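Morning, I've got a small favour to ask if you have a moment. I'm working through a protein record and want to make sense of it properly. The fold is given in discrete form, as structure tokens running alongside the sequence. Can you walk me through what the tokens say about the fold? Thanks so much in advance, here it is:
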Amino acid sequence: MSLEEDVQENIKEMMLFEWPIEQLISEKKLLITQPELYDFDKLVTHIEDAATKMKAKRIVIDSSSLIGLYFKDAFKVRRAMIDLENMLKRLKSTAVVINEIKEGDEGLSTYGVEEFIADGVIVLYCQKKENLFARAVAIRKMRATNHSMKIHPMQIRKPGGIVVFPSEEVFTEF
């Protein structure tokens, strides 16, 4: 579910990684959709209907940060995030919900509730040391697992995608 970016733009960007996007779409193994953003309940219904129709095993929502635009009250935003999480759990699919945070922000989410209701939280970083920026990733939370507590360097490669270097440290040789 693309809540911000145009579907065709998403497809173009995915194709840069040489993934067989068009084939996956024609085989009905991938659906990229951009629902109307006027009503939260309709958004949730759209996600649930699309996922159910294609028997989705994985759902990606980019980005949940927009959900707050539906509500003026912080409590209602939190309630909506919990409702979204409950719907995703009913689908018994793996859900990746992208959330934006401001650079340098110590929080892990836009509304301060997402990291508590999620089973896992993966944080992407762009860290600076002197005149060098390095991409990095850390698992901040992953229920029922014994995961690394370190920040690991990563690269985004074309073609391919994300490559994580689990035995490396940020700002050592890549």
In short: The chain has five helices and six strands. Residues 138 and 150 are 6 Å apart (CA to CA).
